[in-house]
User: What shape does this take?
Amino acid sequence: MRVTSFFAVGHVVWVGTAILMFQVTHRQQRPCPAAGEGRVRLSEDSVAYLPVRAPLAKLLKLCPQAIETPVVSVDLHRHAGLRFVLGAVTAHAVQQRPELDLSEPPSYWLVEGHGWELPSGVTSGTTWSELQSQYGEAYGSTELGALLVAFCRFPWLMIILDVQAQVVGSPEVSHDLSRVPSDAGIRVVEIGAGPRLSTGYLCGRQ
Assistant: This one.
């Protein structure tokens, strides 16, 4: 399936309608064995000790407690996924296909909950004003019904802010995020597992 987002219209990308996805089922699940009690570190390469681009079979070996949890996009496409419980953090390794292929890596990860930490000390308690101060130049869009924000410094990362899309206004891709409330929190973190996209045309670089 070809999925496009405001990052690069016309390309197969890792974000697509991910922010508007939701879990089909909520089942009781044991945490991963190496979850620990500290913060879950998120980076371009890993979610805690789980490699972002590893095949799902390897991820299951690292955390046999992961369970299959399909997600459904806003346009009712079913995507396959594995859900990992890492302390107070839930991480979804999602493939843009209807059935899991354990030999392939995720297309992207969705991370929610409390107790995670991104580079530069950004956590689930960081506000929009603090986030912008730490990460610098950003652009956003509300075309998928929620406020999606990306940062030129971290092209692998997308942040979904906990703010109503209509508060921000225009659905077009924009660097003008002045209407975002300074105290808006972070709802979901999305980490791309596919090829890194070129954002030069959005970040003042060719």
In short: Residues 110 and 190 are 5 Å apart (CA to CA). The chain has one domain: 1-24+38-194.
